[in-house]
Write a structure and sequence with these properties.
422 residues, alpha/beta, TIM Barrel, 2 domains, six-stranded parallel β-sheet, two-stranded parallel ribbon, 21 helices, 10% strand, globular
Length: 422
């Protein structure tokens, strides 16, 4: 059994493209920005200009790093210098979600189960003009999950500012989702937020995922300082917005969470970021101590038995310096090898390489670890009441085949793929 623990199948319609581009260009706007535009004709040019200057800010530090930073493997300069990869990424994103799934499975036929992570951008962007809203994205994901009969095991994206904890309970217990995805750079920290509602809802989430469960519901949280996306919302007294929002994913915030919920099953995705591992793979000194997230993640893994991490968005590194990456990783993970996961981050990693090459290069770079990362480690991470009880019940209800489809122990049954064939 081979499992991709970190991929994406949402398409461009699910993402507010203009707002996302604004954040990449260091454009930050306040809550009244679009109101000022709409009122322009009635209030006159001076009022509009005053509102514009108050509600619009160009973060030149973030803008510069988006073009030139060597630590970022998705910066605009990289995309411009790799047009073929960028075109592949764009072409994938314009497909429908079912077509992205079909294309993904075609490119990597050796993967048996895929774990798509949804994205919730509703509270992240001022000017969120997504064509497909979150509820519609969720429904499409549910339909895909039912159609694929066990080969798709999705994680429900949760932003505590957007909806209450009951949305998570419904997604897990009724709608076919097997875990939860958190993306802190959208504008919230795992712990220590000033907003009491956000703190309360996150606490409810951690309690729900661990309550009376021998195998807790898994959470995957974005944990990279060098890659990913972030909010474009204005915050008082903040000048470098990229650093501000990206630091919300800092693994140190999870220390307080885990001290209270020690059995929480948590995947700190990206293992600190591609740039961190690029430096280690080239035997270069790590970045400033406060950005050395890999060490913090490893310490959390040693302190808590249910903390995992995944290697994802590493297409460039594993193709250009697979041997250096291999040595750096194996030297660091001694003692926690059983909690290292592997994900393609497709189709985000499409800006780096083709999906088939991604898996081939990882197989070559980590021959002794590969089968564990995509096999036993992934199974251990995913096994919970969700995959053993709620998920099979959802597939039974959608496919109308009664109890003939029993996935309670699907991960260790050879006949699983035959039963789930389509």
């Amino acid at each position: 059994m081979k499992i991709d623990c970190h991929c994406h199948v949402f398409n461009n319609d699910c993402i507010p493209s203009i707002a996302l581009l604004q954040s990449r260009l260091g454009i930050v706007i306040g809550e009244n920005f679009f109101k000022a535009i709409n009122e322009h004709s009635t209030n006159g040019h001076k009022a509009f200009l005053d509102n514009f200057l108050r509600e619009f800010f160009l973060d030149l530090i973030s803008l510069n790093s988006s073009f030139t930073s060597s630590t970022e493997k998705d910066n605009l300069l990289y995309l411009a210098s790799h047009p073929r990869d960028f075109i592949r990424f764009i072409y994938t994103g314009i497909k429908s979600m079912p077509d992205i799934v079909a294309n993904m499975m075609e490119k990597a036929p050796g993967i048996d189960i895929w774990v798509p992570l949804m994205m919730d951008t509703e509270s992240a962007y001022e000017g969120d003009f997504s064509q497909t809203d979150f509820e519609e994205q969720k429904q499409i994901m549910m339909d895909i999950t039912a159609k694929e009969k066990g080969r798709i095991m999705p994680f429900f994206a949760y932003d505590p500012r957007s909806r209450p904890i009951d949305s998570v309970k419904t997604a897990i217990e009724r709608d076919g989702f097997v875990g939860v995805k958190l993306y802190p750079p959208m504008g919230f920290k795992p712990f220590g937020n000033d907003d009491h509602m956000v703190e309360s809802r996150l606490d409810e989430l951690y309690s729900y995922c661990t309550l009376k469960r021998d195998a807790p519901i898994p959470i995957t949280a974005h944990c990279s300082w060098s890659d990913g996306i972030y909010s474009n919302r204005m915050v008082p007294d903040v000048l470098n917005y990229k650093e501000f929002y990206r630091d919300m994913a800092n693994p140190s915030y999870w220390k307080e969470v885990l001290s209270k919920y020690s059995t929480l099953k948590l995947n700190l995705a990206h293992f600190g970021g591609a740039s961190e591992w690029e430096q280690r793979s080239n035997s270069l000194p790590s970045r400033a101590k406060d950005k050395n997230w890999a060490e913090t993640i490893l310490q959390l893994m040693r302190d808590y038995k249910n903390v995992y991490t995944d290697l994802s968005f590493n297409g460039i590194l594993v193709s250009k310096n697979g041997s250096g990456f291999r040595k750096a990783l194996l030297d660091m993970i001694k003692g926690v090898e059983d909690r290292i996961l592997l994900g393609s981050d497709w189709y985000m990693s499409g800006i780096q390489c083709d999906l088939g090459d991604y898996w081939k290069n990882f197989t070559l770079a980590f021959p002794e670890l590969f089968d564990f990362m995509v096999g036993k480690n992934a199974i251990r991470f995913l096994q919970s009441e969700a995959t053993q009880t709620f998920f099979p019940a959802y597939l039974n209800s959608r496919n109308g085949i009664g109890q003939n489809l029993n996935l309670s122990d699907c991960f260790n049954k050879e006949e699983f793929l035959e039963r789930c064939s389509y």
